[in-house]
Design brief:
Elements: E1 9-12, E2 19-20, H1 22-35, H2 43-48, H3 54-61, H4 68-89, E3 95-96, H5 100-109, E4 113-117, H6 122-131, E5 140-142, H7 155-164, E6 171-175, H8 178-187, E7 191-194, E8 211-213, H9 216-225
Parallel strand pairs: 1-4, 1-6, 4-5, 6-7, 7-8
Antiparallel strand pairs: 2-3
Helix pairs in contact: 1-4, 3-4, 5-9
């Protein structure tokens, strides 16, 4: 489905869209599990746990318990360990996806305003963007704990649109998962999904999005074509 004309800003997801963060997320998870004396998880398993924030990832890594206070205490201990380990591991093995830098440069050439929107907490998001050299591209960064709710809730997207003083149909979201597609549809924003992300092991072709792109550069080319 072709995008409407007049897109004025682009919001971009972080994990699985801008950056491949799985190796660092997995390294932190393995350290957490080892510290707790629990069985290791494969990197592919951990990849499928990504998408709804670190607390959800940690919960999925843990064995299924019987519930109750003991399970809650284990989850709290595991989350604290994970956050410490991930703070140490973040950025060590993370890589920028092909086409990201080219796409960001093309967006800027099109005079589009840029925001990063992620379910990752700000204490991890901001240093990672800075370490990877991506921070200067973004006028606004909205993390998973910036507001009361996060994707798939539309609150983050509505917040960005309000900050940019733009109607929601003029602000495009680019992401990789159902969280992104659902948030965009609820907010009234157009949405493109990349073909290479995580999506909790789901098929990106099943998502309700306006198009699937191979890279951010391809997304920029689509936006350029709407101006021709």
């Amino acid at each position: 489905m072709p995008l409407a004309r007049g897109i004025a800003a682009v919001m971009i997801d972080l994990d699985g869209t801008l950056l491949d963060t799985v190796p660092d997320l997995a390294a932190a998870a393995q350290r957490m599990l080892a510290a707790l004396g629990l069985p290791a998880r494969s990197e592919e398993e951990i990849r499928s746990f990504i998408g709804k924030g670190i607390p959800n990832l940690v919960e999925r890594c843990l064995p299924k318990g019987a519930g109750g206070a003991r399970t809650a205490a284990l989850q709290a201990e595991a989350l604290a360990l994970y956050q410490d380990f991930y703070f140490e591991e973040s950025g060590r093995r993370t890589t920028i996806y092909p086409g990201v830098l080219e796409g960001l440069a093309q967006f800027r050439a099109l005079r589009l305003r840029l925001a990063c929107v992620t379910n990752k907490a700000a204490r991890f998001t901001v240093p990672l963007l800075e370490q990877m050299g991506l921070a200067p591209w973004f006028e606004l960064v909205v993390s998973g704990d910036t507001l009361a709710r996060k994707k798939p809730d539309p609150m983050q997207l509505a917040h960005i649109c309000a900050k940019f003083a733009l109607a929601t149909d003029k602000v495009l979201l680019i992401g990789d998962s159902a969280n992104d597609a659902l948030a965009a549809r609820a907010a009234g924003c157009p949405v493109l999904c990349v073909s290479y992300g995580y999506n909790e092991d789901g098929d990106v072709h099943d998502l309700d999005c306006d198009a699937i792109v191979e890279s951010l550069s391809e997304a920029a080319n689509i936006l350029q074509s709407t101006r021709s």
